[in-house]
Amino acid sequence: MGYYVLAADGNPLAVGLKYADKPIVANITSEEEMLKIAREEMIDGVIHPCSEVAMNVMGRINDELGLHGISRNTALKATNKHSMRKAFEAYGAPSPKFYCTANVDEGWRLFQSIEGKAILKPSRNSGSRGVSEIDKSLSYDGFKPLFKRAKEESRDDSVMVEEFVEGPEFSVEIIVWNKEIIILQVTDKKTSEAPFFVELGHSQPSLFPKEIVEAVKSAAVKGVEALGLKDCAAHAEVKVQNGKAYLMEIGARLGGDFISTELTHLSTGIDMVAAAINVSLGVKLDLKQKAEPQGVAIRYFTPKPGIVKAINNTELLNGPGIYDAEIYVKPGDEVREVKSSLDRSGHVIVTAPSAQEAIDKAEELVEKVKIITA
Ligand SMILES: Nc1ncnc2c1ncn2[C@@H]1O[C@H](COP(=O)(O)OP(=O)(O)O)[C@@H](O)[C@H]1O
Ligand SMILES: [Mg+2]
User: What pTM was computed for the model?
Assistant: First the structure.
């Protein structure tokens, strides 16, 4: 894009640093340290692509240097699930019943006040870490360790207790330019079954009927308005129960899991990362389609827990239509039960004329390429 890029990371070995014009090793979670660097370097914009660890820092830099992009206040709202739910509720954006507490006994009491199933999750984290579904058959003794797990995973020690929304899950890939909300794509998501809801795959464009896709988009727009997002990318997660859409959460950033960085680009022909960079700089948006839209799917490898003995048929990952593939484990490594995104063992991204064909091929590959554990 012709921009001069500074990249910052606390780890001198971080893989991205070598791609920057100027790599900077610094604590990106320190507002003061990053603000000082931003001032010295006289930056024109800042972007925190697919993660949330330092969104508040980015917001503070935007505030103090008068840059485009979200404010510190908005960043705080968009990274704390409790504040986010409160903002949705206040604005009338569709959201399930929710509570937040740090106390296990109060958590148990709140769970009793919810009819039917509920979700326990950290009020601050991501990647489905610490998330579990619970139902009325659960005893207090069974509840305690799940609450503790959610609390330990939470960056602010609090746990969300939410009404459980049944049904398929979607994400909506959005660019907000000067408060105009532009939807680039709707993604169908495949998650693991209860209790942990780990994302096992994504595909675009959505294969659901138009009414459902429209309901998903409207919920996402309401959510973006509720958070007051401007000049940023956004990734809204939505579930649809009995035809009604409910917001799960919204990231005021590009979505992870290759969704915003690769899948959206492949399925729409529009470079969403470039768009997110430009909105953060206040450079006029160019959403021209530069490639043909196509169907795209990613599927993750989740072999049985155990020690990896062998990995067979990997040559299949070099076939036509395979955009990218990677196995994260090698013989001798341990594969754990899949309780969060971090426990997945590899991925494959496939493109095809339609999303369904891409899904079929990706699922065939995660079946045929065998990661054998014992
Ligand atoms: N209230 C809920 N009802 C049903 N499923 C939920 C609810 N909250 C979360 N989930 C499930 O758990 C997953 C992770 O929750 P989410 O709030 O997105 O946290 P994370 O930041 O870890 O992605 C969601 O994608 C969804 O599948
Ligand atoms: Mg999520």
Answer: 0.94
